[in-house]
Amino acid sequence: DQQVKQNSPSLSVQEGRISILNCDYTNSMFDYFLWYKKYPAEGPTFLISISSIKDKNEDGRFTVFLNKSAKHLSLHIVPSQPGDSAVYFCAASDSGGYQKVTFGTGTKLQVIP
Amino acid sequence: DVKVTQSSRYLVKRTGEKVFLECVQDMDHENMFWYRQDPGLGLRLIYFSYDVKMKEKGDIPEGYSVSREKKERFSLILESASTNQTSMYLCASSLTPWAGELFFGEGSRLTVL
Known about the structure:
The complex is a heterodimer.
Chain A (H helix, E strand, L loop, with lengths): L3 E2 L4 E5 L4 E7 L6 E7 L6 E7 L4 E4 L2 E6 L4 E6 L8 E8 L8 E2 L3 E6 L1
Chain B lengths: L3 E3 L3 E4 L5 E7 L5 E8 L3 E8 L6 E2 L7 E6 L2 E6 L8 E8 L8 E2 L3 E5 L1
Parallel strand pairs in B: 2-11
Antiparallel strand pairs in B: 1-3, 3-8, 4-5, 4-9, 5-6, 7-8, 9-10, 9-11
């Protein structure tokens, strides 16, 4: 039972354009959401997060949007750069209990120069 | 900077062997985790620990055990390795008692022949 879903395994975007990565979740208890970025042969690194009390969080070129009613979040990268090419994992958790973060299957982003 | 160190980057073991994967973090984090990453399946939680000598099963604990004798060290044990345990294993730690940012190690690529 995949509680966090990233339906696009891959995405290609031209440098300078917007990258939009999508994520859906099914567990209504999730109230904290994170995005991680992973380069080959490295561990994932935290990118940005959002609490369910907000619908948008911005950090430089990265913005995460949360639509609780649709159980959907998205990560926008503007403008996209070749160094953004990586696998992006969406993650979610229920902060009411002990920490247990559930990850999606990942989306491989390729930014074409 | 938080550093999470995994003892082996690459291991090759034979079916039936006992395998130890070691993880050490240097930031006094309470929580530690073991995930495995497989293509198309994302990161799946095997076990986590929120205190010394405490452990909780994740989503896929079968065939694995863990040990946390000291706060900084969390070990993953495969009692009798099988070919379906060939995977990338990722250790992580976090400070917050609720769902927050995870700090990952670089991963251990295990191949079971």
